[in-house]
Amino acid sequence: MTKSAVKEAPLREGALWPALREYWHAVAWSEEVTEDKIFSFTLLDEDIVVCRPGGKLTAFSDLCIHRGTPISLGTIEGDKVVCCYHGWEYNAEGKCTRIPSLPSEHPIPKKARLETYQARDRYGLVWVCMSDTPRAPIPECPLFEDPDYQGVFRNRWIWKASAARSTENFFDQGHFAFVHDGILGSRDKPEVSDATIERDGEALNFWVDVPADKTHAVPYVRNYRVFRPFTIYQKKEVPHGGIESYMNICTPNSADRTTRFMMIVRNFNPEEGEAKSIENFSNLVTEQDQVIVERQRPEELPLDLSEELHLKGPDGIAIAYRRFLKELGVES
After folding, report:
1. Contact partners, residue 304, CB within 8 Å, separation at least 6
2. How much is the pTM?
3. Residues 189 and 213 in one domain
């Protein structure tokens, strides 16, 4: 078979993984990572831990350099992380400071250290970047740091799906009338308004006019800002000047497993009993989406636009997003 006759595999989400190490990913709620607890997480198929030895937030590969024991089985003692197997002690920079089986005067090998990653607290979440040189900062979602806005919901789910498939689902307008009929849309009005899409560096901005229907008494606007790769910051303008804002983050654990974080804030107070209603509503919508997304094939989001059929109007946002991600897969 000649070289020209060999068909190249279509470009899919998996091609992005080397570049994804250079972005910030949410891994835990901030309060889950305490000064006396080691929190373990799988990010891009690598087991990591986040912890606060001596109060300093840090992230390590979940692997002791000595005998490959998970650091997550160890303990935090003061400002040190202690391996459970042979008691090796590491400081917040990952450097081994004590090996109990050696005399105190014996030098500690320079190689005796944990692989460290950058870690930051923001929006009540712990974020990790697996590169010393991030391509972009943690996404800017200012309403989640605005004292005039209060949190009304947050949750975390595990989906057996890829992060890009899960992200695209959140802003796909066409499925609202069918998957969420009577909740977010209506089968009586399945048409999708054209979205105005603008590129802004590491983000895509777009907004969609939503007409009144049986689920919304008055028309409103959905504003989206999608940060590459998997963070969505959405604002919903409601009557009388109220604004409700969503942050949806899909963190890639593996090719077919995603942790999805979602938070909602408002600049107006929920009515009595509404908080529980928001919780039930958000969980129901998520469950309806999960059934669909976990069964999409191929599991990885196709970045080659010829692999799936697209409609210029209704699928305009998805087309822009896939092209946006594809840039990462073709860069050197």
Report:
1. 10, 11, 12, 326
2. 0.93
3. yes
10 pLDDT above the threshold of 60: yes
What are φ and ψ of residue 245, in 5° steps? -125, 140
Same domain for 157 and 123? no
Strand, helix or coil for residue 329? helix
Q: What is the pLDDT of residues 239-271, one digit of tens each?
A: 677 899 999 999 999 999 999 999 999 998 877
pLDDT in tens, 29-41: 999 999 999 999 9
Whether 152 and 278 have beta carbons less than 8 Å apart is answered as yes
- Final residue belonging to a domain, choices 81, 96, 129: 129
Nearest CA-CA partner of 108 in 56, 66, 63, 52: 66
Yes or no: say if 196 and 206 are a contact pair by the CB < 8 Å rule: yes
Round to whole Å and give the CA distance between 170 and 230.
Answer: 10
89 and 177 fall within a common domain: no
pLDDT digits (tens, 9 = 90+) for 199-222: 999 999 998 887 766 656 677 788
155: its two tokens: 């949750």
* Residue pair 43/27 in contact by the 8 Å Cβ criterion: yes
Residue 313 is assigned to a structural domain of this protein: yes
- What is the CATH number for 184? 3.90.380.10
Q: Do residues 149 and 124 both lie within one domain?
A: no
CB atoms within 10 A of CB 285: 17
Q: Is 84:69 a contact under the CB 8 Å cutoff?
A: yes
Q: Tell me the residue range of the domain where 89 lies.
A: 23-129
> How many domains does the chain contain in total?
2
Across 293-307, average pLDDT: 96
User: In this prediction, what percent of the chain has a pLDDT beyond 70?
Assistant: 94
